[in-house]
């Protein structure tokens, strides 16, 4: 009797202890991944061509310049400047995003037709970025602390050895129930993400379709996201991308929203 | 003659015939488990019909869902309190977890994003992220709801007592299972709210369930009623059961064939068993004659064969006429009507084959003493009914002119009634007043924008045009124009979204609740909107190249006339486009438009089918009688009956719907039986008894075959009378229609044929004798 109780305890411990150890490292992997994916370099600039494709194959195009600068360590404050080139009637529209961990972003939007800057308090970080299947979180990241992360298994994607991490949101304000991420062990970039809805069905798949090394930073230069339920998908490709370009802090100000310096949005 | 050999063969090998009938029936029965129903009103027209192709295209272009369930939440004390809002949150959350629900596009307080402005800051957030914790939160929600025209009359009623959740379904999802899951969710709510579940999928499934009820409960009851009436008429259980089996066999064969061929059961074909049972009563004439003949010959075999010889021609021809009446339906455009026509025509042919094989075979199993007893009883009990029939025929034969004048007066009155007929198919009103579907529809229509959905699709000559202020103003003007119609509850378009953003960007100043001045503004507002809403919100109202816009028009009634009004108003608006001629083309779409097209199709089908049936039935009569004049005589009472009934339909203000229009063709084919029997038997009598006077021959016909006619009519009516208690109004209509038509046409045949023959005896009788 006693022996079997001891055995049971040992068995329980063997389950609990490694799981706890893994939990810590899953968080660590996700942190590293976020740093590699969204915080590479001190600053970053890209010209992005985004395609919104509906079920019937019809496309809408969004072309934009994105400038990003880190303020402090990865995972801490970050600022984004986004300028739209296309569609033609929104040319000149510009976004300023101040991103803080554990707090809603500050966003400002410049509407050229009204020559007006408006602050936008967006509580809904899961909402669509400019009508695409990417959410604001897909663009600028999600707080690591918002989810419980755990390592599910290791798996290869193509030639890349990956950790597969399961992330389950702690709150209920998400459009998904949990997410699986395939994190490349060497680059730490997410090569694939699967979103499962609250019924446990796979409904959205992110994939990094092209990874290039730019100034020593492995960078996802082509990505796509497909909503399996609606049949809608979105692709984003970097036409140009560069790191360490020396963006001044001053760029992230309202007056530049109205008249961005030509060198950043050419 | 072939038929005779079949009869003799059947009489000589009765067991073989019965065994064969049973084996074939079992074979057809194996198909039954494959049964499927189709209650989707869209399938009334083929998938290739112009309206369906167009509607499918519109659905695809604007990413619209084919199926949507609406959940109504009513609290007489107002929705805006913490408890009810908590309920809405719980129910919505539950709905999002149901399989088959297109969760991403569910519209409810907690899933709709709202853009508001406060102190110059745009706020993009779910309308209700969480249940407000205090009264201030509730008031804030109230303001957000009532100041936004996009929400008013959609997710909340003007009086604040009704809220709605819209639940789109994935393609191929099981509407019934989802509706049941939602019912379970709302069943857990213990507050004072009332819940209503409406929408096409719910209506369809309820309809399907009622259809099964008709087939599984009402058809058997009709069969039992017929059995009882028949037993009362003949006092012979064995023969009553034989006729029942006759009907059952034809039902099994035809339904088995239908199911085996892969056709789903529609509303019309669900009525087929009752029709076949009724049509089977035509064999009544065989029984009637058999008893009389047996009384005369006392030899069973001889009586059977003589009976079959005497009735074979009228029975064959009535079967032909009935089959033609139903067969005409095959030429129609409404699919369920076509299938129904083919189904019953096939069943009728089966019945006739059985009349010449199965029934004579069954006769051989009855003991002779028993037949004798019944035959004697026939003679004795003949008194009452026969005296009545004699009187009826006497009225026609002895006072033909008076009879005719009365007829003409009724005819004129019926014509007036005909002009009052209103062609309309209101699918919701096909449910009885107390039905859950109808109640839900009434509640939602009373307080919200309207459950019947129409679209007006605006198409421009070039891409990007929908972003111009000009296009926007045209669409806005059209919306205001359409909203003047009392049947229109709410309209929604891309213009509403643009105006909303315009106002919000201008600190909620009502002055800016208007179409912006430039195309740039519109383009940028739409872009801004797309950041703050579900992608589908925009897709639902404009296409990708901004060449087409979709204006949602919610109607408060499913009447076809409502859509006709919308189209008329739409055309008016286009014609009156003031400053500049409109560069956009407007075209209606949506389920309401489908209903209108289908409705008109029903009318056209009816006119065409009725014309075809008129010609075909007349041709059969003329061929059968070998005389156009006799055909005319036989035809008149029939036409007269139908006119009278339609006159009553007109006066009663009853919608002239698909089942009624179908009946117009059928009734010709069925009621013509009476004329065929009467005229053939009269002429046979005149040939057999050359010395008898015309009026005596007429009275004899009324008395003897006339009794068969009346029995046939009563049996027919008895089986359809059961349908008057059915759960769906089309069944009730069909039941009432056929009961009155059968009884009336039997009486009309017995009164008017003698009158007409007496009046036209000069020219008719010469021919009659030659034939």
Short description:
The complex is a heterodimer of chains A (266) and B (771). Chain A is of the alpha+beta class and 266 residues long. Chain A has helices at 2-38, 136-140, 254-258, 262-265, and strands at 43-53, 59-71, 77-86, 94-99, 106-111, 116-122, 147-157, 160-169, 178-184, 190-196, 202-214, 217-227, 233-243.
Q: What is the architecture of chain A at the second tier of CATH? A: Clam
Order of helices and strands of chain A: HEEEEEEHEEEEEEEHH
**CATH domain fold name of chain A:** outer membrane lipoprotein receptor (LolB), chain A
Portion in helices of chain B: 55-70%
| CATH architecture identity of the largest domain in chain B | Up-down Bundle
CATH class of chain A reads: Mainly Beta
Task: Give a verbal description of the structure.
In chain A, 19% of the residues lie in helices and 46% in strands. By secondary structure, chain A is of the alpha+beta class. Chain A has one domain: Lipoprotein localisation LolA/LolB/LppX (outer membrane lipoprotein receptor (LolB), chain A, Clam), CATH 2.50.20. Chain A starts with a helix and ends with a helix. Chain B is elongated, with a radius of gyration of 32 Å. Mean pLDDT of chain B is 83; it is low at 767-771. The chains are: A alpha+beta (266), B alpha+beta (771).
């Amino acid at each position: 009797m006693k022996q079997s109780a001891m055995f049971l305890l040992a068995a329980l411990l063997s389950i609990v202890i490694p799981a706890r150890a893994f939990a810590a490292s899953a968080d660590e992997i996700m942190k590293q991944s976020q740093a590699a994916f969204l915080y590479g370099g001190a600053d970053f600039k890209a010209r992005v061509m985004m395609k919104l494709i509906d079920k019937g194959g019809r496309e809408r195009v969004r072309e934009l310049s994105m400038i990003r600068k880190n303020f402090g360590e990865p995972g801490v404050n970050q600022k984004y400047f986004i300028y739209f080139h296309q569609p033609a009637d929104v040319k000149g529209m510009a976004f300023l995003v101040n991103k803080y961990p554990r707090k809603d972003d500050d966003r400002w939007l410049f509407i050229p037709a009204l020559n007006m800057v408006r602050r936008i308090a967006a509580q809904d970080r899961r909402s669509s970025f400019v009508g695409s299947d990417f959410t604001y979180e897909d663009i600028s990241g999600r707080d690591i602390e918002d989810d419980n992360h755990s390592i599910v298994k290791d798996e290869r994607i193509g030639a890349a050895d990956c950790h597969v991490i399961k992330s389950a949101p702690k709150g209920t304000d998400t459009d998904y129930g949990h997410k699986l991420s395939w994190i490349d062990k060497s680059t730490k970039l997410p090569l694939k993400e699967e979103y499962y809805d609250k019924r446990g069905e796979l409904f959205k798949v992110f994939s990094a379709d092209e990874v290039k090394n730019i100034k020593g930073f492995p960078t996802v230069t082509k990505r796509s996201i497909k909503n399996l339920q609606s049949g809608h998908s979105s692709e984003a490709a970097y036409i140009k991308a560069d790191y360490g370009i020396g963006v001044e802090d001053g760029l992230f100000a309202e007056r530049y929203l109205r008249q961005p310096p030509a060198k950043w949005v050419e | 003659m072939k038929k005779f050999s079949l009869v003799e063969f059947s009489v000589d090998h009765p067991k073989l015939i019965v065994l064969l009938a049973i084996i074939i029936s079992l074979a057809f029965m194996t198909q039954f488990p494959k049964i499927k129903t189709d209650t989707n009103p869209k399938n009334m027209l083929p998938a290739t019909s112009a309206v369906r192709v167009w509607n499918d295209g519109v659905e695809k272009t604007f990413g619209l869902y084919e199926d949507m369930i609406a959940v109504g939440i009513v609290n007489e004390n107002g929705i805006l309190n913490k408890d009810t809002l908590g309920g809405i949150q719980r129910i919505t959350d539950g709905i999002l977890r149901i399989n088959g629900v297109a969760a991403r596009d569910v519209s409810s307080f907690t899933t709709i994003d709202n853009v508001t402005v406060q102190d110059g800051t745009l706020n993009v957030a779910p309308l209700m992220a969480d249940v407000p914790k205090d009264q201030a939160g509730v008031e804030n929600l109230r303001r957000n709801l009532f100041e936004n025209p996009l929400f008013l009359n959609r997710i909340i009623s003007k009086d604040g007592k009704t809220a709605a959740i819209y639940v789109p379904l994935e393609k191929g999802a099981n509407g019934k299972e989802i509706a049941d899951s939602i019912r379970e969710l709302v069943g857990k709510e213990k507050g004072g709210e009332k819940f209503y579940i409406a929408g096409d999928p719910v209506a369809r499934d309820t309809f399907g369930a009622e259809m099964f009820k008709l087939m599984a409960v009402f058809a058997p009851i009709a069969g039992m009623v017929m059995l009882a009436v028949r037993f009362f008429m003949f006092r012979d259980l064995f023969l009553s059961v034989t006729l029942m089996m006759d009907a059952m066999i034809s039902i099994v064969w035809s339904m088995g064939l239908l199911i085996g061929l892969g056709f789903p059961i529609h509303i019309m074909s669900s009525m087929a068993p009752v029709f076949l049972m009724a049509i089977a009563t035509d064999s009544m004439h065989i029984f009637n004659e058999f008893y009389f003949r047996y009384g005369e010959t006392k030899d069973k075999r001889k009586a059977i064969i003589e009976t079959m010889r005497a009735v074979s021609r009228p029975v064959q021809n009535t079967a032909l006429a009935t089959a033609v009446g139903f067969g005409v339906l095959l030429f129609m455009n409404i699919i369920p009507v076509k299938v129904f026509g083919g189904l019953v025509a096939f069943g009728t042919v089966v019945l006739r084959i059985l009349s010449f094989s199965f029934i004579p075979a069954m006769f051989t199993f009855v003991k002779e003493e028993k037949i004798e007893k019944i035959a004697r009883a026939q003679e004795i009990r003949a008194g009452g009914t026969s005296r009545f029939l004699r009187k009826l025929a006497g009225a026609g034969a002895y006072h033909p002119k008076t009879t005719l004048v009365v007829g003409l007066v009724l005819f004129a009155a019926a014509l007036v009634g005909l002009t009052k007929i209103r062609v309309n198919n209101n699918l919701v009103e096909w449910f009885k007043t107390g039905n859950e579907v109808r109640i839900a529809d009434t509640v939602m229509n009373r307080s919200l924008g309207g459950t019947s959905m129409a679209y007006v699709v605006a198409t421009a000559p070039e891409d990007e045009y929908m972003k111009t202020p000009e296009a926007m103003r045209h669409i806005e003007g059209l919306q205001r124009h359409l909203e003047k119609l009392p049947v229109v509850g709410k309209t929604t378009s891309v213009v509403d979204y643009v105006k909303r953003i315009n106002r919000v960007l201008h600190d909620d100043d009502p002055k800016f609740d208007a179409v912006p001045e430039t195309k740039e503004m519109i383009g940028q507002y739409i872009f801004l909107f797309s950041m703050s809403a579900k992608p589908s919100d925009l897709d639902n109202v404009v296409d990708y190249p901004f060449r087409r816009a979709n204006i949602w028009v919610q109607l408060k009634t499913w009447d076809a006339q409502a859509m006709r009004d919308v189209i008329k108003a739409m055309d008016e608006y286009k014609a009156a486009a003031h400053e500049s001629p409109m560069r956009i083309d407007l075209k209606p779409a949506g389920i309401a438009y489908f209903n209108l097209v289908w409705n008109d199709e029903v009318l056209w089908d009816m006119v065409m089918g009725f014309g075809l049936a008129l010609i075909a039935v007349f041709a059969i009569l003329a061929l059968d009688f070998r005389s156009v004049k006799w055909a005319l005589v036989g035809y008149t009472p029939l036409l007269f009956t139908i006119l009278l009934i339609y006159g009553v339909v007109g006066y009663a203000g009853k919608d002239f719907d698909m089942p009624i229009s179908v009946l117009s063709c059928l009734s010709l084919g069925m009621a013509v039986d009476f004329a065929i029997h009467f005229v053939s038997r009269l002429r046979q009598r005149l040939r057999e008894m050359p010395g008898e006077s015309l009026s005596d021959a007429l009275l004899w016909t009324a008395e003897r075959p006339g009794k068969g006619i009346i029995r046939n009519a009563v049996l027919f009516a008895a089986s359809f009378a059961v349908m008057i208690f059915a759960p769906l109004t089309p069944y009730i209509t069909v039941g009432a229609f056929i009961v009155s038509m059968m009884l009336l046409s039997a009486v009309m045949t017995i009164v008017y044929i003698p009158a007409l023959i007496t009046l036209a005896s000069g020219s008719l009788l010469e021919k009659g004798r030659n034939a």
